[in-house]
Structure prediction request, 147 residues.
Amino acid sequence: MSERKIKNIFSQGPIATIFIAESIQKHSSQTAIGGHSIFLGQVRADETEKGKVKAIDYTTFEEMALEKMHQIREDIFAKYPLTCMHVHHSLGEVQAGEICLFVFSSSAHRKAAIDSCNEIVERIKAELPIWGKEIMENDSHQWKVNK
Prediction:
């Protein structure tokens, strides 16, 4: 198998629901796919000691993050029989209730799609150098801890 190119997973601001819907629709012509697994990460309006979260401002070391995501992508394709995998992560400010992460994996069978999607999300959270600054309703802020 030839090595895949590094893909840019980042976009400014929230991930639009119409983009998510169109991404899913585009796969209807790929009739060898039997299962898709989709994860959508949404900004929560958490209550913290500093106040209620109104948004998260995401930042990254883009080149480092894209290289790491490429490694994760190659590992996942080697481990699971996937037809395709798509990852989109927000940068910049995303309001509570908006989508900040979209992971979409497809395979001939559901188990590979589901298991790979779960592993991709866990590895993104654990390994990618992406930071979120929680912005509170009172305009104070704090750095988010991934859970």
Observations:
- The chain has a mean pLDDT of 93.
- The first helix runs from residue 17 to 25.
